[in-house]
Amino acid sequence: MLSSPQAGNPPSPKRGGLFAFFKPETPAPPVQGSPEEIKRQFRYWQNRILLSSLIGYALFYFVRKNLGIAMPYLEKDLGISKSDLGLFLTLHGVLYGISKFANGFLADRANARTMMAAGLILSAITNFFFGFSSAVVALGMFWMLNGWFQGIGFPPCARLMTHWFSPKELATKMSIWNTSHSIGAALVLILCGYLLKHTGNWRLCFIVPGAIALLGSVFLLFALRDTPRSLGLPEVEGTESKQTESDETSGAEFKAFLRKKVFGNPYIWIIALANFFVYSVRYAVLDWGPTLLHEMKRFDIAKAGWMTASFEISGIAGMLLMGWLTDKLFKGRGARTCVFCMALTAVSIFVFWKLPADSLVLNTAALCCAGFFIYGPQALVGISVANLATKRAAATAIGLTGIFGYASTVLSGWGLGKLVEMNTLRDQEGAILEHGWGAGFAGILLMAVIGTLLFAAAWPAKAHGYDQK
pTM (2 decimals)? Predict the structure, then answer.
């Protein structure tokens, strides 16, 4: 599991100012002790890093997914239109995707501990400003800023996971970490729902989570550490580097490494493109689920909401199982697992489409199956490219897939809505006779099929890039 600690690495050049706060931690002298004692310390820090980063990223969702539940109150209190609120969400998502990619470059050469804490602090501050604002322009600007700061959260986690866990177990461990998305989203919805029910004050939905996030950033500074070498521990076996931390992050050499390992690897591009269709299917169900269940299946809106929620909840089990299967069955080759997941997602959606609307249980079960299978690729895409790019460029590679993932909202949002609208039947007076969800389902199925074929094209990809010169 562990390689021999590197002795005698010269410390990185010291730099002052703000840069020093984000500079990777200097390697510490190798820990002395028996191999068993070193392994015990390493396991302790692995568990601590996994749990702390999971909690930290869940807190990013506290100051990111709180707008949705507050929107009806914002609309009523400030008179903000639905189109303006929708624009907040769109611009937030676009900036988040760009930020995730841009900050990936930084995270691969930065201190994961301080970078993650700084991102959470900045998101908390923008939530405070949002909560105390009333002007539409100010609210939009603060939420756009929050989108950028949110993009700082994931890249340092990618650095942590790939530095602390072997490629042989990364899929399992990172799938566990990936549950932070659902945990954070669920908890903030419960918290804000309670605040709104008992106070009716939408501003508390931003001020209270912001305060919790600030406390969480302090927790991250104490709980996290950058890399095993920063504690004098050996590197994970199979990921060893003969270079110093300074050499690994030097500008020219690092850019050459990125060109070879990330931008020059065709399988990373194929998987990134496949991620476009993974997110297209996922967001199509999440964003349009309540509407199609109400309009096509004739379920009341309350049941439609719970049924859509079951889609995401079942995804937690899917992430955990698919991560474990990737390590045990496919030896870390995540793209191979994704082939089966996307194919079974397509089957589940087809079954859901054709099920009669009179069975709540069967329709919910079909939605749960779709969520179970689609969330496997949602987690494994990042894991696969992180392994291929190695720990030195994992954040950059995952950032690249994020660009494709969040670009999918054009297809899953506007594109799918337009498709359904074009196929909606109306009478001569313009009244709707039948919604065009048949065409909508055909579109979602096509997305799943294309995603399956792209993952199949990445089938020959290696498990990781550590053994490639």
Answer: 0.78
